[in-house]
Amino acid sequence: MDQSIHIAATQAAAPCTIVIFGASGDLAKRKLLPAIYNLSACGERVAPENFAVVGFARRPMTVEKFRSDARDWAARYSRLELDQKCWNDFATRLDYVSGLDQADGFHRLRQRLEQLEAERHLPPNRIYYLSVPPEAVAECIERLGSAGLIAKPGAANFTRIVLEKPIGHDLVSALELSRLAHQYFDESQIFRIDHYLGKETVQNLLVLRFANAIFERMWGARNVDHVQITVAESEGVGSRAMYYDPAGALRDMVQNHILQLLALIAMDPPVSLEADAIRDAKLNVLRALRPLSHRGAGDLVVRGRYGPGLVEGTAVKGYLQEPGIPPTSRTETFVALKVFIDNWRWAGVPFYLRTGKRLAARESLIYIQFKDAPRILFNRTGELPSNALTIRIQPDEGFSFEVLAKQPGLDITLRPVHMNLRYQSEFSGASPDAYERLLLDIMNGDHTLFVSARFVEKSWEFVQSVLDWWSDDPAIPLHDYAAGTFGPAAADQLLERDGRRWRNP
Q1: Taking the CB of the first residue and of the last residue of the chain, which one, N or C, has fewer CB atoms within 10 A?
Q2: At how many degrees (to 10) do helices 453-472 and 259-266 cross?
Q3: Domain map (residue ranges) of the chain
């Protein structure tokens, strides 16, 4: 018997035009255009009945060429197999405008949008997705304003802007970008996207925590020994040297992805499922995050850099040998932190965070270890493994609960067993791609899975203290680790000093 409880149905969004800035770039090819096609595909359609997609980039290109390229990208990267009938309908909705870098480019964009809207009987509901390098974001916002392409909040037709990470390079630049964005847009019109929040398992965190009374009653300092959050990447810097070397692991992953996961796993119950209530509950976690002072950060933060090694049996270069990386670089490709949340729920519970490139596996997970049972019955004469909940975000989405059971036999022998949920085996059908979920929410004006200005500010405040510490003291070690391992020994010691260890595959 189906015991599913339907909370809300997915509804088609209002008619609109999505303008992809940087439409010839990698994000548009691999994620955005395939995701929009999937949302409009036959049999699964949740995209508006009437919509258009306009690619806006620097280089000249005919509309026919853009449509042909988009078909190749969708065939290669789409979650759904390409259906010719569906594609033919989707292709008619694609258009292209060049001149992103030219003085009259934005005025040409405005003219083409007005022409398309008249031809297709589309209302001037517009979404501007800024898939452009971070240094180009401010100019794009200013030129949208000067070209008259922004409707005021509360107008009959909406204007929304989508900002990709990174939101700034440090606290000062993030605050300046926020000031500029709010000069032209209301906060209700701004969608700061973090694709991690669109992943099915991340969305399921709220359900796991607040729809299951068993977990919520265990969630906090009374029962939890510690929490680990790991975002491990097996690939190296690849072709991203120009972006990655000025950024590093702390800016690239901790300031956004990992602090988002921390907020979701540690937040108190929101007062409702409204976007503002959920975002306020997440923000309160960052407000309670204990700052990392220069005096104490040496024992709480480890940074590392990968050297040559073996990844899945293949020899790979070290970071300094990667193309485009200067030989004098001091950029970290790995960082581990021990942090505390100073509120009533989590007082005294350590949260261990780590992320890195060229690690032994590609894996993102949250590991919650519960406190040991009293030393009275079965563990009176020795240590027993702890109960633990592991939430797997990628690549094998799901979660497992580790408990102790008696092994069959005449002796009393206990061993850990896993109560395991794998999304692929439990639920039929392919999960929507993260960008599908997020793009649909943007069309619907739903901010639940998007980052607020205050969250960005508070996350940068926390990270900036570490960046300043590293900048002020060049003697702080940058620990080497071999590619294909789980980071430097100093990261293991961060837990070993507390009598704990990382949960590795």
Answers
A1: N
A2: 120
A3: 16-196, 197-496
pLDDT in tens, 414-454: 667 677 767 666 555 567 788 998 999 999 999 998 999 99
Identify which has the larger pLDDT, 426 or 55. Answer: 55
Q: Do 269 and 216 meet the contact criterion of CB atoms below 8 Å apart?
A: yes
Fold agreement (16-196, 197-496): no
- Assess whether the previous peptide bond of 269 is cis (omega < 30° from 0): no
- Whether residue 465 contacts residue 286, with contact meaning beta carbons closer than 8 Å, is answered with no
pLDDT-derived band at 1 (thresholds 50, 70, 90) equals: very low
Looking at residue 423, what DSSP letter applies?
H
Closest CA to 264 of 134, 386, 364, 385: 364
Burial class (CB in 10 A: 0-12, 13-18, 19+), 438: buried
- Cβ atoms 330, 245 nearer than 8 A: no
Q: Is 6 a catalytic residue?
A: no
Question: Is the CA virtual torsion 391, 392, 397, 398 positive or negative?
Answer: negative
CATH topology of domain 197-496: Dihydrodipicolinate Reductase; domain 2 (3.30.360)
The residue type found at 416 is P
Which CATH code for domain 16-196?
Answer: 3.40.50.720
The number of residues making up the chain comes to 505
- Rounded mean pLDDT of 17-33? 94
* Per-chain mean pLDDT for the chain: 88
What is the distance, to the nearest Å, from the Cα of residue 302 to the centroid of all Cα atoms in its chain?
22
3-state secondary structure of 351: strand
Q: Which residues contact 495 (CB under 8 A, 6 or more apart)?
A: 352, 501, 502
Handedness of CA 8, 9, 10, 15 (dihedral sign): negative
Q: Please enumerate in sequence order all residues whose Cβ is within 8 A of that of 428, keeping only pairs 6 or more positions apart, or say none.
A: none
Question: Please, are residues 219 and 345 in contact by the beta-carbon 8 Å criterion?
Answer: yes
- Contact between 159 and 189 under an 8 Å Cβ cutoff? The reply is yes
List, in sequence order, every beta strand (DSSP E) within 145-253.
Answer: 159-164, 190-193, 224-232
d(CA 70, CA 200): 26
Q: Mark residue 342 as left, alpha or beta (left: phi above 0; alpha: psi -120 to 50; beta: remaining).
A: beta
pTM, entire model: 0.90
